[in-house]
Specification:
The protein contains 4 helices and 8 strands. The chain is α+β, with helices and mostly antiparallel strands and 171 residues long. The protein binds coenzyme A (COA). Coenzyme A binds next to strand 5, helix 3 and helix 4.
Amino acid sequence: MSASPLRTERTILLPLSANDLDEVGALYGDDEVMAYVDGGVRTREQTKSTLAAAERCWKAEGWGLWAIRDAETGGLIGEAGLQHLFDVDGAPVEFGFTLSKRHWGKGLATEAGHVILMDAWERFDGDLIHAITDPENTASGRVLLKLGFHQVETRLIHGESQLLWEIQRIR
Ligand SMILES: CC(C)(COP(=O)(O)OP(=O)(O)OC[C@H]1O[C@@H](n2cnc3c(N)ncnc32)[C@H](O)[C@@H]1OP(=O)(O)O)[C@@H](O)C(=O)NCCC(=O)NCCS
């Protein structure tokens, strides 16, 4: 299963796929963008694997990562959405977001994140979605708070002290 595009005032959102390789490759290759992202910068081959995993997730689960594109130009702003976390106890599904530098500080992660999260509750049948941030990554913490996440605890994840966040389905 895939998904129809979603829209916000300034963005159009499409399921992330192998077609996004060149632009996502540039995004994941930027060391400033990836400073707080698990694993840091990715090679083109690693990005290819991430995009293949994203396609598999959309197919198997009916939810996944979205490419966030400029509604006017179609250019890639970043990616955000749900993905599996295979090795974090009690947190099987993570919400995350990665935007290219020139788009930071304009409210775009919050704008796209709201719509992605609202849509995710329709697609995902669990009651909890988690997020993980580096305690120094103020911007991503602010976005999560604005989306309604709350901090659960500080935990050692992949050898780093990280903040674990969650949001619960409202019934
Ligand atoms: C985290 C990230 C997605 C935020 O995106 P963004 O579109 O710039 O965020 P927004 O413009 O919606 O801003 C959200 C809040 O963060 C604050 N913020 C943005 N950049 C900030 C910075 N460098 N330092 C402190 N606060 C910052 C904004 O002021 C805003 O808070 P406010 O409304 O209280 O003023 C973006 O910085 C990014 O892609 N970073 C690199 C990848 C990354 O770290 N992803 C998260 C991994 S967990």
